[in-house]
Structures
1.
Amino acid sequence: MFVSSVKSCPIFYSTFGALAIGQKFPLDLNLDVVGATEPEKEALEKIQDCYNEKGLEAKGLDLIVMATITTSNKCFSEAVAPLKDAVASLGR
């Protein structure tokens, strides 16, 4: 199944945030939204356990990596490309 970036980006950031919070309930709510299977939930809960064990430093480092990727030129150009195509098609 293909999920467009417009739909998947908010879900990704919401789930990552719930993961980083360190509580099972918000994570499960986010995973229910995307229809995650029980094995998928268990896997992400294990990742959450690792975050909780490593503390704020691990969460902070991942946040830096995610921010770096999100604000990269490649990410911006891929996010803006559909908008540019849509605007260009209006002038045709």
2.
Amino acid sequence: MATKDSMVWPKEGEHWGCPDLNDPFSPNKILPMNETEWYQQDLFGLKTAQEAGKNIFETFEGDHLQFEIDDFDRWITSYLVINDSNGHDKKDDLDEEYIDDSKGNGLSTRIE
């Protein structure tokens, strides 16, 4: 979730939160995911996924999708399991060297 999101309202919606529809006179009262009707009634499997440990939520300081590439890399690599040919996890062996994308769009590629 972007802590200063100017595009998504409420910003908590990025983590499945929503305004309290039972209290329309308090538009700033935002329900966390587990207090929403769709979660409690498991209308589309959100509660089931949460209870199975399948939901992953990250938060960063800044505006909508304006995270640093280092944050993105940290999020992605923290959930990857990279196995060598013998099935050993190589995530801890990844080097930290990067080469910038030639188009200058802020993307980077890990040097193998």
